[in-house]
Protein: Aminotransferase, class I/II
Organism: Lachnoanaerobaculum saburreum
Amino acid sequence: MPYADLTKEELMELKKSLKAEYKAMQAKDLKLDMSRGKPSQEQLDISMGLMDVLSSDADLMSENGSDCRNYGVLDGIPEAKELMGDMMEVPADNLIIYGNSSLNVMYDCISRSYTHGVMGSTPWCKLDKVKFLCIVPGYDRHFAITEYFGFENVCIPMLESGPDMDMIEELVQNDDSIKGIWCVPKYSNPTGNSYSDEVVRRFARLKPAAKDFRIYWDNAYTIHHLYDLDQDHLIEILAECKRAGNPDLVYKFASTSKVTFPGSGIAALATSHNNLEDIKKQLKMQTIGHDKVNQLRHVRYFKDIHGMVEHMKKHANSLRPKFEMVLDTLESELGGLGIASWTKPKGGYFISFDTMDGCAKEVVSKCKKAGVVLTGAGATFPGGNDPHDKNIRIAPSFPPVGDLEMAAKLLCLCTKMAAVDKLLGE
Amino acid sequence: MPYADLTKEELMELKKSLKAEYKAMQAKDLKLDMSRGKPSQEQLDISMGLMDVLSSDADLMSENGSDCRNYGVLDGIPEAKELMGDMMEVPADNLIIYGNSSLNVMYDCISRSYTHGVMGSTPWCKLDKVKFLCIVPGYDRHFAITEYFGFENVCIPMLESGPDMDMIEELVQNDDSIKGIWCVPKYSNPTGNSYSDEVVRRFARLKPAAKDFRIYWDNAYTIHHLYDLDQDHLIEILAECKRAGNPDLVYKFASTSKVTFPGSGIAALATSHNNLEDIKKQLKMQTIGHDKVNQLRHVRYFKDIHGMVEHMKKHANSLRPKFEMVLDTLESELGGLGIASWTKPKGGYFISFDTMDGCAKEVVSKCKKAGVVLTGAGATFPGGNDPHDKNIRIAPSFPPVGDLEMAAKLLCLCTKMAAVDKLLGE
């Protein structure tokens, strides 16, 4: 029965029994972390073969004859471009292969635009006001970068099929201080949903007032499916922008951080040739080249995109039971109570969970006191400020599935407690 | 006999025979590159064992218990800090371990100061004028960074014992638009000399008008000796700055690019705790962490600084004959002619070569036409502009020693030809 239909007496009674349950949970002395989208040890073990593909008797020459051990090759070896191009669904020659972190690439894109502008535009540091659009709930590290540069982060609500495109179109057409938008278009962080075909098409057809406006398309979960057949599909944005006559509108990012090892993978940027040319002017000042041995290591390990896809099935086998465990627990504990809602992703690393308004902070705090660390309430909004205090990002990947059941139950319990308090007006 | 003492007729005669020699050289159809400080294939082979230390059955945990395969550890694993600290002669806790490129770290330091200032100072992008001191001849990639940011590069002459400290002291004390100085203090690029004790002490005692002035101390060749006993020694600048009451004055850079593999090594920044705190505020926006697996790989390979020192002896064994070959050739071909001078380094990657005034471009061009690529004349000066057109950077590391003899002879020949033309007033 929905909590809203309970009498005050029933709620008081419920409160008492929930409190007893919570005490019993606390007694278990849990120490679990569901705060970040970190692969588990089991997932890391999947990629250990990566450590064996290059040995001291290996040939470390790229297919174009350059010695991967030496200086040079600013934008990546050709075979790495091909592999990452296939992963990102763009031609190899639209890519730059970077170092170990796509976040680093995104930061550098913002920083470069701030210091030197975009394809000849006024450097953003010379402007009085710069705004960036942030789809909420979204990824805290994105918002942190634009906040760090002093931009105004403007919230755009995430809807069922992607962000509110009416709002985005209206804003970017009329305000030339808006220079970009942060997107995680597939298995979004944290909602896990993917942008519909119409949303992607509308993105590609944006007519920004600012010529140096770019879509920051962080396709972090492009091949990170939970199921082999039931997968989200996303229209490829670079090609769609080209078709729409806006070839330079987008920077697309990806990495192998959640394919092989986070921190020891390779990252890439895909964009138009005009953008690439602009970016390389800066990149050649910044470095002589990224780690080509690691590029080669990844190519030799996967061989091709098929190898990568097969590899991702192993990750899916590890992640799927965890997602299902959390979703089953949420359904069995909270289904029909009218005090929470949540997303049911087919890929990615997160489930987005909404409590009743004004309850998220309390739920996270209660979980913490019973030994389960969740992503801080509000973290999915710029400045950590969730105006409804209801969104919590659940990251099921890291803990073992047994622990996860306990953690999910605790989350449900704390959600119930906070809801009862709210309904009692406490 | 010095060319200056030759009669016009003797010079004319000489010109003729040099021209014949040059034609013979051209007929050899050489294709050699002495342009960049790249390790040779022989040197790269020295480090192939690096490929074997981490295999799929290796334990990839850091000594502090963190899994090197996963996210986290912003400033580097402790054992990498210790190794690089020993290499850089600073305590491990004064370090941040970065990715594969110290140039990237330097660029990012300039960029951060430009966008966010230094320890609370006005961001440099908000200033009308920023100047940077460049010791000449020096490293082109340093100068290119500050030029790219629109700073005025101010030349400081390199003297026997280091840069002209009188000039530096005078300038930085009186001009608060001077925000830094590029230094390669040991086996300098390209002169190969090292700063004297007095020079280092005077650096540490600078009293810059700008509170956000920093010394960019690129100790690229800190353990890159040619001889086991006859080595240059440099006073450690961080400690000296601390003693002088200027603990925050310096950023010190190094990498293993010329220890293991260029592009696949690890880089580090050493500086005061105040500076580290300032830098980490930015770094945590830019990345979750650098490649810890590669950090671990380097530590496991070298074990400790002694392992690294022994390793560098192998590089020395490969480089020493090359340096000696070039120096012997220069001496036997040009000694006593009064038309050229050059340095005799005990380490590093370069020999600095001076032609007669106004001859360097011509010499480089003549060499190129006979198949030997040298670093472009002027490259060792900001903007590529050598006011005397005399300095050429010789990089003997890459070609095999046999080729090198040919290349050095060609260089001498072209130097003679240009000198004769100059003396003839042509």
Q: What stands out?
A: The longest helix of chain A spans residues 305-334. The radius of gyration of chain A is 23 Å. Residues 146 and 379 of chain A are 15 Å apart (CA to CA).
